Structure formats: structure tokens, C-alpha cells
Amino acid sequence: MNFARTLSSSLNGTELSFDVVLAKIAPILFLALSTIPYLSHASYVGLDGLLFSLYKDEDQMLAVFSNTSSPLHWYTQPVNRDNGKLYGQAVSAEPVATRNATWFQQTLNSTSGYSWLGKTWSKAQDSLFLSAVAMDGRGVISLGLPATVVIEHFAALDFHDGDFHLATNELVSMGNPAWKKPKT
């Protein structure tokens, strides 16, 4: 929440266009992705359809963005890992998230944010713990950690012969591979 508050205050009521998103939001998302250990995904999704997302895919960093209010026009482009600047050619991409998605609406309607288990936008499509908060009534900021990092963190703890299971509301097990989502 503090991250979204800080970002919002740095915008100081500025009208958001794609150029403003590139100039003011993208560098902060890049800084978060570059400095927060294990973070692999950082996004801004605006109420108006503007989107800018950075994610790690193997040894590279990529941006996914929509520079119009149309949710149907998404692009992906490589990002310089040293300075966060886009380079190379933008390539058309399939939309992955929408403003109508449950997580987006849940985040906007919550004062404390929303967390869920999703998938990375990378080729591997690994599980990702995402946490999102509303930003100044203009959109949502989300950050994601690979599920394997969370699992390894808890696996390293000594529960003194106790068990620990971490599950989502969809009953996807993070602690016991034998525990599976029931068939409905």
C-alpha cells in the first residue's frame, strides 16, 4: 500500500497519458523490480485501459503495455536491465488481463488490497503470488513473487515436527503435492 501511495503522491494529480505512464510510473516499477529480492512482476493497470507491466522472463526483462484505452491493443518490448528503458521493436501481444477481471475489481473495492495466485506472463507460465492495491482511484498497482520462492521460504522453517500447508481459496496446495483441488 505504501508503494502505491508513494507513486500516487509523486504524480501529484497529473492527468495520466501513456507518456506520463512511461515517464513517471514505469521508472518506479523498474526500480521495484530491480531492487526487491525475488520480485518478478510489477504492473500498473489504469481504469482508462492504460497498462504498463514489467516482468522477468529467464535472463531478460520485458515490458507489456497498452498505449491506448483499447484493451485489445497490447504490445511487448524488451527492457534494458541496467536503465529500464525500452529498446528494440514493439511486437503485438495477446491481452492477458482486463479491467473486468475479478482481481482488478476486488482490488478497487478493497481498502487493503487483494492477493491471489496467478500465472507469470513468461514463457514458463509458472505460478505467481500477486498482490495488488488501488492507486489514487485511477488504477491498480500489482507486484508478483514466484510461488517457488514463497514455498522455499516456508520450507526452510523448522516447524518442530508440525505440518504447514499454504493454500489459496481455490484449494491449490503449496505444501502438500498430494492435496489437489476437488473435482466439481
How would you concisely characterize the structure shown here?
This protein has 184 residues and is of the alpha+beta class. The chain has 4 helices and 8 strands; from the N terminus they run H-H-E-E-E-E-E-H-E-E-E-H.
What's the arrangement of secondary structure elements?
Layout: H1 2-11, H2 18-35, E1 41-46, E2 51-57, E3 60-66, E4 74-79, E5 91-93, H3 102-108, E6 114-119, E7 127-135, E8 139-146, H4 147-155
Antiparallel strand pairs: 1-2, 1-8, 2-3, 3-4, 4-5, 6-7, 7-8
Name a few traits of the molecule.
alpha+beta, 8-stranded antiparallel beta sheet, 8 strands, 184 residues, globular, disordered C terminus
Cα end-to-end separation: 36 Å
Summarize the main sheet: 8 strands, antiparallel
Report the helical percentage. 10-25%
Instruction: Name the poorly predicted regions.
Output: 170-184
Instruction: Give me the strand/helix succession.
Output: HHEEEEEHEEEH
Average pLDDT taken over every residue? 80
Explain what you see.
The protein is α+β, with helices and mostly antiparallel strands and 184 residues long. 24% of the residues lie in helices and 28% in strands. It has four helices and eight strands. It has an eight-stranded antiparallel sheet, sandwiched between helices.
